Amino acid sequence: MTLRIAVFGENRHEKLDESVQKIYPAGMHTVIADALRSLLAADGVDAEVRIALLDDIEETLSEEALAETDVLTWWGHMAHADVPDEVAERVVRRVHEGMGLIPLHSAHYSKPFRALMGTTCNLLWRNDGEEERVWTVNGSHPIARGIPHPILIPQQEMYGEMFDIPAPDELVFLSSFAGGEVFRSGAVFRRGKGKVFYFSPGDQEYPVYHQAEIQRVLANAVVWARPEEREAAPVKIAHAPRDWYRGEEVTRVL
């Protein structure tokens, strides 16, 4: 089956900041989407990749659009508050139903991710353009396939612990920075029937999404996060009369 991917980009820094425009003249979302198309095609994955922007969010992340989305990547930073609450709620609902979500970098503070985590998602940060080393700590995880150990990012915003998230179901990557901080930079969660992979490298001021290793992580992640082969619906609340499981018609509760 075709893997249907939506790449959400806030697309604010690219419009307002000349230095970001030089790195991403067509937007970070375009670089991410093009990389996914190229790598997934090379991997033999039948995929369709579309772009969703904050300016058209009501259309591109509508109920109908999200119903046709298997995996959603999300980059946001300066305009988290501009995402309508009802859009964030429907993204969360779709994750519970089985859609994969890949929050990127400062999307740790996005409405959908914070709702799914149930915590503040606060962290330490410093933007001095330091080297980041992304260490693989779970080499058997599908997202780590073909990833060098470590990924070296010449310049990046520092994100550091404490990172106020629940304990991840699995930790795939751990980053260290020139200033000595460490950060859980690649963390996996399951929410309802959906999979979530938070991946922190990718500040807008640096060409991180142009790096082949980062692109490979994202390609691996969307394949891993695709819905599993089961009904795309939330777990139901169902009345269960005594001995219901002995009847000819068994009530489905999953």
TrEMBL record:
Name this polypeptide is given: Trehalose utilization protein ThuA
Superkingdom of the organism of origin: Bacteria
InterPro entries: Class_I_gatase-like (IPR029062), ThuA-like (IPR029010), Trehalose_catabolism_ThuA_prok (IPR009381)
Domain ThuA-like positions: 5-225
